[in-house]
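> run fold Valine--tRNA ligase
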Amino acid sequence: MIEKNYQPADIESRMSRIWEESGAFMAGRPERKDAAPFTIVIPPPNVTGSLHMGHALNNTLQDILCRFERMRGRDVLWQPGTDHAGIATQMVVERQLMERQEPGRRDLGRAKFLERVWQWKAESGGTIVNQLKRLGASCDWSRERFTMDEGLSRAVVKVFVELHREGLIYKDKRLVNWDPKLLTAISDLEVQQVEVKGSLWYLRYPISGKTFSPEDPSTFVVVATTRPETMLGDTAVAIHPDNERIGRLIGQHVILPLVGRRIPIVGDDYADPEKGSGAVKITPAHDFNDFEVGKRHNLPQINVFDREGCMTLVDNEDYLRGLPEGALMLAEELHNVDRFAARKKIVARLEDFGFLEKIEPNTHMVPHGDRSNVVIEPYLTDQWYVDAKTMAQPAIAAVRSGATSFVPKNWEKTYFEWMENIQPWCISRQLWWGHQIPAWYGPDGKVFVAETEEEAVGNALGYYVEQEVITEEQGRAMAEDPAKREGFITRDEDVLDTWFSSGLWPFSTLGWPDDTAEVKRYYPTSVLVTGWDIIFFWVARMMMMGLHFMKDAPFSTVYIHRLVRDEKGAKMSKSKGNVIDPLGVIDDFGADALRFALARGAAHNHDIKLSPQLVEVNRNFATKLWNACRFAEMNSCDKPDGFEPTAAKETLNRWIAHETSRATREVTEAIEAYRFNDAANAMYRFVLNIYCDWYVELAKPLLMGEEGAAKAETRAMVAWARDEILKLLHPFMPFITEELWAVTAKRDGLLVLAQWPRKASAVTEEQIASMAMAGPGDPLIAPVMAALDAGDFSDPAAEAEIGWVVDLITAIRSLKSEMNIPPATLISLVLSAASAETKDRAGRWSDIVKRLARLSDISFADRPPEGAVQLLVRGEVVALPLKGVIDLSAERTRLDKEIVKADADIKRVDAKLSNEKFVANAPEEIVEEEKEKREAAVARKAKLQEALERLKLAS
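> ok
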């Protein structure tokens, strides 16, 4: 028995338990051993994370696909798991130690600290998994993986060792994003650009060989910088070769202010002749662009900061090399001074000596660590790298050949741009939590990469015996007794970037490097669902690793979804206070309502605008479905065994079979094409407008009438259509549909494992015969032919009749709304020059049309009465005599005024959108909002003009 009120919280907790206990989501079910596999790997959320709206969207879309394919009979594996999230997790545990006033990480030591991290993971690391379950994610939770699991860790080590052996992993000194607070390199994804109101300092660099005078521009070159503290590491000044104004200086030298070092002026395209003075300082060790310029001109790299962002000059060999006598005083004064304090000292000193020309206010983007919130320093260090350029080539070819395709297609351009310009991938991190790099160093710094310490020790001892650094006897002793080799060989302390291990996710989760049955069956996966922002960081890494080690792309399709924004189109952020908490929304409206709202907005070409009110609309939709199912139950609607909807006799019932078949086709094709919004909106329209508002309403006279064949057939058809709705809606709203499936009739099993609606037997013999008799151009031919081609059930005659009823009532209701006629007001309807078919329909449906359209009577006439407003319904004129009902003249005046207002709204928006400055500077969401205002105003004006034309015809 269906409860009177729809209570999402009660249903969701109960259904989650039932699904889990039944093993409904498990891959490899015995009855599907011969079924085609369908595999999705979850983008592993950070183990420290909690569900945000991006997770909610991403996992809802994955779940739609998995539930859809599971109902279509596929052997579905939705592989779940979490990422160890090196920096985030280490920070959480370190903060916990500090809050509890316990010894810090370095006091504990590496081994003890890692014990504490594993302890935290066991106690608190599963939060997001439980939140995903609340969302309804139908992952095979029995196969949950963690990037630091023993098996996945073994895969990481094997990949590192093999790539190193092939020369694709190497150590190099390059610039990295360095976090001076966390003391580690970080990836670009962990850097956020923050707009800062700063300054632009214009500095005078004396030209070598000339006597410097601040009053004589011919004695110096002006450079502008936002970071004067890095000037101590300058090794050149660059000018564009085509700079007509100062290009003659290329090949000369300048004297670095305060330092006295002689540095060259080089010609390089990087210097923009139109920007600033046309000359730029080059600091290869502290700027990514300068680093590339330095490589092109073989410039020295002078790092003037230490790991914590303090000046390090006194013992800095690179800085001291070539330093003039007497210049050491500045190095001593700035030694160990924080970079920003050093900036003030340096600027003051530059001003004292006349090297500071001017300071201008300058708003610019400054990179910050997304977790530490400190300014990121481009920093020159020794790190481990992957030769990404070499590994990218097969990954580029796989997309170009169509082996892997992006949906929407335009994201392939982004992928190619990134991959074709790919830089070496820095994979080492100066952390303790993560996969420790399998590299050991000998006493002379020689590196030994191996899968195990024993193997590395063996290789090292063999090498040093051969080099006669140690004797064979010492080598044997050290091999047999670990105590004797302590300190002789030490392991690299760094760990690997988390993107390294997550790049193996599609096959490491299946048991690789072991030759498992799961790898053979579920790799490659079917589709990857992810956001555009990690195409480079994750998608590209998986493509490179999968093709290299599995010799096959990890997925055939990459579906890229858009962002979830607030209702005004602004990006959600804590600072703006516009973040919508998905768990709070689920508490208020239920998971189904949130999922359906996200799916309905998930279009290919624009971001999703979300608000709690929008979720509430979809909760109301769920309530409407609930009440419709309850109405069916109260009217004893049940589907008898063997019931065949296409054999129905009643026109109304054949119409709903026709509409259900059409909805099945629309939803199926839309999901197959990853048009989630089209699929969800098709269901919204079908359930609300077709089934609830029209079919159930039109069926009420039959359901409440006398017992007989028509009533029995209608009861069965109401139940059949309801069941098809529950199946079609299940991927989007799994909880409510599973509950209604269980309580509406006796079932063989769970809806999650039920069969997806199949296309019904096509067209009746009578329709085929009537089509054969039809003449060329007959409108009945096209829909019947389409139905025959698609294999759908189609009944054009039933659609024509019930469609006429629906369109007639809808048109009358719309007219009343346009003319400000109260809905309850009874008016007359005249069918003008009606065909015999229309007269028959009017006779059959007269009572229902009068009741639902609030008509006093329906009559027929050769022409519309004078003063009647005319409507065109399915090619025939219907007239509504409104004289005496409304003041036609006053209504025309009102409509004229409304049209003028709509015109004014359109012009106001056009003025904004034609203003190039507004479009360039306004936030994207504001521009989109203005475009939407214009579309709404244009649509409103069109409806008003249509209404006005009707009134003019009535005059």
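Residues 439-491 form one domain.
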